[in-house]
Structure formats: structure tokens, C-alpha cells
Design goal:
Layout: E1 2-4, E2 7-9, E3 13-17, H1 26-37, E4 41-44, H2 51-60, E5 65-70, H3 75-88, E6 95-100, H4 107-113, E7 117-119, H5 125-135
Parallel strand pairs: 3-4, 3-5, 5-6, 6-7
Antiparallel strand pairs: 1-2
């Protein structure tokens, strides 16, 4: 837990990752910084990570959340594999969210897979940090 002003908020461990061949990580770095500024511990895995590497990092780091940034169009494949691997490793309690170029028509399918939230282009960092705070309210 961390004090922010007069309130106590939980400090979460959040893995931010760029899966696949996507080589643009500026947005992921901006989100990682915003989450750090909101008082969370952020582990940024870097570019070109496989879902296996991301899940392994999340488990080793005892992460509460995994945030994927996908701009390559492979969001359905990447999120599906990540969620499957979490289930195989008995780690489905790690909340998965993401952002990037994701068509609106794919959002329901991602929700069915177990992805908690997708932030599409134009989402602000405050929307992301506020959503994280809502998902893990003060206990």
C-alpha cells in the first residue's frame, strides 16, 4: 500500500509487454511511466516478447496485472495465447489488459477470452491508471 494525499492505495506489480514482431514501444513506455507515477511497480519486458516469456516474467515477478501493447494486428493470437498460458500455469488470477490498434468488432471476443480491458487509440493515461485503481480498490 502507498499513501497518495489522504488516501491509501494498493501498490500493484504490473508487467507491461510488447509481444510479437511489433517494433514500436513508445506508447507502452508512456503507459509504464504513468502506472509508475500512480504508485505501482512496473516491469517493462521490452520489445519482441513471446507470450511464454511474458507469462514467465509475470509469474517470477508475482505480478497482479499484465498489460500488453499490440499494434501489429496480431492481438487475437497474442492475447489468446497469453490467457491460455496463464491458465496452464494456474495463474489465471493475473489480470490481463491491453491497448493498441484493436478493431471494435474484436473487443467482445477478447472479453470472452478473459481480457479485462482494452484501451484503444485515444485513451488517456489517466483513463488507464483510473481503471487500474478501480480494479484494485483500497482494502
Amino acid at each position: 500500500m502507498v499513501f497518495r494525499g489522504d488516501s491509501l492505495i494498493p501498490m500493484l506489480r504490473i508487467v507491461v509487454a510488447k509481444p510479437g514482431l511489433d517494433g514500436h514501444d513508445r506508447g507502452a513506455k508512456v503507459v509504464a511511466r504513468a502506472l509508475r507515477d500512480a504508485g505501482h511497480e512496473v516491469i517493462y519486458t521490452g520489445l519482441h516478447q513471446t507470450p511464454e516469456q511474458i507469462v514467465e516474467t509475470a509469474i517470477q515477478e508475482d505480478a497482479d496485472l499484465i498489460g500488453l501493447s499490440v499494434l501489429s494486428g496480431a492481438h487475437m493470437t497474442q492475447f489468446r495465447r497469453l490467457v491460455e498460458l496463464l491458465a496452464e500455469r494456474d495463474s489465471s488470477d493475473i489480470v490481463v489488459f491491453g491497448g493498441g490498434i484493436v478493431p471494435d468488432e474484436d473487443l467482445p471476443a477478447l472479453t470472452e477470452l478473459g481480457v479485462a480491458k482494452i484501451f484503444t487509440p485515444g485513451a488517456t493515461t489517466s483513463e488507464i491508471t483510473d481503471w487500474v485503481a478501480e480494479q484494485f480498490p483500497e482494502e
